[in-house]
Amino acid sequence: QLQFVESGGGLVQPGGSLRLSCVASGFALDDYYIAWFRQAPGKEREGVSCISRTGGITKYADSVKGRFTISRDNADYTVFLQMNSLKPEDTATYYCAANRLPFCSDPLNDFDYDYWGQGTQVTVSS
User: Fold this and answer.
1) Which residues touch 106 (CB under 8 Å, ≥6 apart)?
2) Of the residues 21, 23, 47, 53, which has the maximum number of CB atoms within 10 A of its CB?
3) How far apart (Å, rounded) are the C-alpha atoms in residues 40 and 26?
4) Half-sphere exposure of 25 (CA within 13 A, CB side)
């Protein structure tokens, strides 16, 4: 059974940092492009970042460029999202998702992704 489990969310003050993790089980992670999406209450789901199978290609939404870094460790079946200089507008539930097709669309489209985690909550507030 294919499964993602996200972790690392929490409450952080503006300007702070968090590192989200997404652990895969039941499938070979390196067969998939992986993306992070987020959804704030009352808003549409937004693509945040995407990484290719080997990590050689990464893409970011303009809203997070220069602040967030996506990476992966296929040997540990894990994808990370390092989030620095967090802002209140980054508050959302963050999801990882897997795409078997070899591309990161611009902007990221959630309908391209086949498998999703349950999400982890990130709250940026003083």
Assistant:
1) 59
2) 47
3) 29
4) 5
Buried b (16+ CB within 10 A) or exposed e, 51-84: bbbeeeeebbbeebeeebbbebebeebbbbbebe
CA–CA dist 9, 123 (Å, integer): 8
Tokens of 12: 């952080």
Residue-wise pLDDT for 86-121, tens only, equals: 999 999 999 999 999 999 988 899 999 989 999 999
> Look-up: residue for tokens 């990464």?
58
* CB-CB contact of 49 with 36 (8 Å): yes
Residue 46: which of 24, 68, 30 has the closest Cα?
Answer: 68
User: How far is Cα 6 from Cα 20, in angstroms, rounded to an integer?
Assistant: 7
